[in-house]
TrEMBL record:
Domain notes: The Q motif is unique to and characteristic of the DEAD box family of RNA helicases and controls ATP binding and hydrolysis.
Region (Disordered): 483-576, 650-765
Superkingdom to which the source organism belongs: Eukaryota
Lineage start: Eukaryota, Fungi, Dikarya, Ascomycota, Pezizomycotina
Compartments (UniProt record): Nucleus, Nucleolus
Q motif, short sequence motif: residues: 30-58
Species of the source: Amorphotheca resinae ATCC 22711
Official protein name in the record: ATP-dependent RNA helicase
Helicase C-terminal domain location: 248-410
Chief location of this protein within or outside the cell: nucleus
Residue stretches of biased makeup (Basic residues): 665-676
Amino acid sequence: MKSLKRKRDIEDHERLERAVEELDIKAEIKDFSDLPLSQPTASGLEASHFKTLTDIQSKAIPLALKGRDILGAAKTGSGKTLAFLVPVLENLYRARWTELDGLGALIISPTRELAIQIFEVLRKIGRYHTFSAALVIGGGDLKEQKERLGRMNILVCTPGRMLQHMDQTVAFEVGNLKMLVLDEADRIMDMGFQSSVDAIIEHLPKERQTMLFSATQTKKVSDLARLSLRDPEYVAVHEAASSSTPTTLQQYYVVVPLSKKLDTLFGFIRANLKSKIIVFFSSAKQVRFVYESFRHLQPGIPLLHLHGRQKLSARLDITSSFSAAKNSCIFATDVVARGLDFPAVDWVVQLDCPEDADTYIHRVGRTARSEKPGKAVIILDPSEEEGMLKRLEHKKVPIKQINIRKQKEQSIGAQLQKLCFQDPELKYLAKKAFESYTKSLWLQKDKEIFNIDKYDLEGFHASMGLPGAPKIKFRKGVDVKKLKNAPRGDDDEEEQAKKPEVRTKYDRMFERRNQDVLSSHYSKTIADDDPEDAGSHADADEDNDFLSVKRVHQVDEESSSSEKEEDVAATGPAAKVIPGIGKEPIVIDSKRREKLLKSKKKLLKLKEKGVKLVYDDDGVPHQVYELEDEEDFKKRGSAAEQRAKFLEEEAARIREADLDDKQLAKQKRREKREKKKAREAAERRGETLEEAPRLAEAGEDEEDPMALLASLPLPEDEDEDEEEEERPTKRPKKWFEDASEDEKEGAKKRKGKGRVIEAADEPETLEDLEALAAGLLN
């Protein structure tokens, strides 16, 4: 049976080889069933519901099956992924590739999300093949990838991680590589990936099949030479078409000043709550700020954000959540602009102008995929309109202008200011977002579109909720260090007068004065100076005091009643003065203040606070932190002499304290020994010395109240006594002195098992010493 199966497989391979050789590359092929494909590939395509070929697939797959090098260019959403995955599976199948043959095909993608998407499509259509495939991207487990990499036949990877494995993984061999595929080749050729791609290609064998695919392909001689393409076939299926974007895509643009962009975006989201929206920004910091601020504003639709600074697990979760959602809005950078296929996207909004027309085409390609309808709108600043429209027209992009309905316009500037004022973290994000946006404008190559001097950066700064005028340090022609170090008096007064004062909403808010609060500094100024000069002082101090009084009514007891009536008629009712509560009299110049001061808590705050005092040995009061007069200090001598005297006094005091402590410790030890001897004598007589403590009776002298507690036995003392009882008695100076009867009994009581050996006479000879030693050992 095995021999028959092997023979049948050989015949199938030979038949498939002949069919591929006989395939006409100029013939018009519409279905996958018309192609000479193996049974596993055909079954995988059918199970994945792929039946009809797209334009790029019908032209690129026959050439790839014959082993030609390909440069493929087609619109976004036209099926370029299958155009290289089907030839990869077929060419390895016809070569009878096995696990022992090593790596056969390498597919490189510029982003992790696109690599994951390619790998998922490969798993679907290659489910009936026996090839081993792996996804090698940054953020994954490097150790696990190293263990499995040597057994893989097909790898889908990003340039950085693949280069890392080529340099570090010993078991990874690419000498048998048959096919190299670069998806989104124009992006991979950018400066960010150029060095990595060059290093990868140096490791690969020269004899291989190479395929490059992108929505905006370029035919650069340098790129072709670097990739070692051999007579490549240039497949561009939409060059003759009237548009480089799908015909089912409706494209619009709106001209809005930079200061109104966030208002326009919020109004757009509020008007499309039942839609699936992608909003593109130029930097990750802008994405974070808009996402966090719009979360607080709650437009009424689920919000997501995706950028390159997130971890891989978070990016995968967000991508899957947005794909599964019916109504959602995701804020993203250009990491989403390439190749990702999100189902049923209704709107693509470009809040920031793309760097070129190719980036625009990739962004709008996230909708209207596979001939389904979609809409896209780009929000342009007036300075960007002419240059961007000219470049889109050159790329055959049909776009028309629309205006925003006035009833749909919403202003969120005040709300953002309030949020930034309340939340310092959001204010920090806003500041970083502004800096990253201005820096992206400054770094753009096309200065005809992006002229930073034509943008209303101050208005944009205020629209984000940030107070103060923006400072751009990287602008050309401005020497920042020179301006920073220049003295302030060098500027001409006339030029300073001509400079317009920048006033923000926060500046105007901080200039408002509370008329009902009188600061102590201001009241002191009014009380000390002449009433006629009070107004001038108020004007002088107005900029220095955060809270000050705009108008104060003075009370003159000597004035006549007619003058009082005139004052009341001219300036309102006279102010009330409450003396005697604090150092300064309290002036009540409004009913609201009078009502507030009826509260005891309010009056308590205005009362004069007391001073904490301490008394010395002579009973003289002093403040806790009282400073000594300098003259009195100098009378006692110099600082060095007083320091030496102080140290000498402290040392003598410490010595006396040490002596007292030693005497007290010695007395305690003596009392302890006496108590121990009395207890031992009582035990020998069979008596006890423990008596129950009693309180002093009425007629007796009162004792120390702590005497009762001191008479009680302490656990620590008992432990120490037991330890001392267990200690052996001190040996006599003479070894063989006769022991008394009392000493023998005491030793037996202390040791229990101890023995006393008596020696009749002092040993004189060696034999006597040996006999004594034998007795001791026994």
